[in-house]
Amino acid sequence: MPFTKETLRKILTEAKEVIESKFDYLNELDSATGDGDHGTAILSAMKGAVEAAQQDVPLAQMFQNIGWGVMNATGGSTSSLLGSFFLGMGDAFDREELNGLGISKALDSGLKQVQMMTTAKVGDKTLMDAMIPAVEAARLAAEKDPEATAADVLAAAAAAAAGGASSTDQLVARFGRAKNLGERSVGHRDAGAVSMSYIFQAFADGSRQ
Amino acid sequence: MVMKKFLNKPENLTKELLEGYTECYNRQVKLATEKIVVRAEAKSKDKVAILTLGGAGHEPALSGFVGYGMLDASIVGDIFAAPGGPVVYEGLKLFKDYAGIILVVLNHAGDVMNAKMGCMMAQRDGIKVSQILTSDDIAAGIDAPIEDRRGLGGCIPLIKIIGAAAEQGKSVDEILAIGEKFNQRMATLAVTMKTATHPQSGQYISTLPDDKMEIGMGQHGEGGETGPVAIKTADETAEIMIPELIAAVHAKAGEKVVLIVNGSGATTLMEMFLIYRKSAELLKKAGLEIVFGRCDELLTVQESGGFQLFLAVVDDEAAELLTEPSDAPYWVTK
Fold this sequence. Notes:
heterodimer, A: 209 residues, mainly alpha, Serine Threonine Protein Phosphatase 5, Tetratricopeptide repeat, 9 helices, 0% strand, globular, B: 334 residues, alpha/beta, Rossmann fold, Hypothetical Protein Tm841, Chain: A,domain 3, 2 domains, six-stranded mixed beta sheet, 8 helices, 31% helix
């Protein structure tokens, strides 16, 4: 099944619901090393995303509207990072249906936009620990099988994002508010990486149905 | 979780506190949009506008310093979170016809990124914005790279100085030079006794055992470098902190300094005066002349117990600008 505007709307609604159900957990995770509001920030962001996706515009434009919607709806680093990701995804294509290769290129473009905002890399204990491996896995899956569907590619991305999020347990924070804890941040999972992995999981689930 | 705070709906918190604040001080400030506080009477457009951005929950910072002689606008995010890029852009656009715009940015990941995003959007409209990044926190060590130094309460005296310079009709370049000069020789060290709860989620922002304090915590109560230590007396605490601040700003005997004790929310003025007393004594012993001193709540962290100790070396020009008139609700100078 190709990835369309309908898919995107469904995915965002599901992602918002998952984050709603994990709201307290995400705030708690962030409370251990940050200032305890990641759940609040990411839920506002997803509400903004769902609302921005209601307008009937071309798919690429819809991704961009979602980016602006996220940035308008929330603040902090979530605003510019997640906002840039969707904004960048909308820069990569002008079709109404995406296959595996199409979605992987969109993800790649989204990541590039995020990297204009932050220099955080894998291993710095941020949401990039989920996002970078996910985009990479999507690219590999699309390259390996040119026939791959969007759902196949997004499943690979979701698995990599989940792995990336759990890898943050053992990492020392190098960005954001947790940075000043240094070694004491070890043993806590990064809230941003966890919510990013939920979003990728929603993309995988939503594009399969 | 039940919080012992007087609140309404968490999602309306920032909007409501700004409404109350601007209503209370309506002779000095008003709301331009839901989360942008501006002066009640705008300054003339032939002068440079001074703006800042930041999360709420730190009252009176930062909106308390909007007014004649200080800020033209404060662009507010949600509790402890910087405003999103589009909101920053909205704020910048309000001042597009001014002689220039200087945006004071506190060094926190979200603030820096959203300021960048807002400036990028403004740039597309041909609006030029200069930034001053404050990173006065020395918790990560006095030689720590800029990116490891957070922006704490030091932005407030800096805003006072550049705000006064802007009022005198100085150019963007002149104001930037004055601001950067002050910025380079200011330092802040925070100490926390009791941590705060996030007023929207009710979550504790880190924890501290009852018998411990922690030097070097950030202004959201996030952890410091050293970890918790046994509670010390006011004098002992000042004796630990002042030498580090002197070293950080490279203060030499004969130089003029500014000393500010900024309470975090639950620390009494009584305690602040004890800290100030010992700090002033130590600075004088080091041959430094205190030309400006203050004990007050300028930038708070909810019900957090503790304070930020601020030291800056100033020249005559900065010292004078600090005492120029201001009618910002939380920094009134006649």
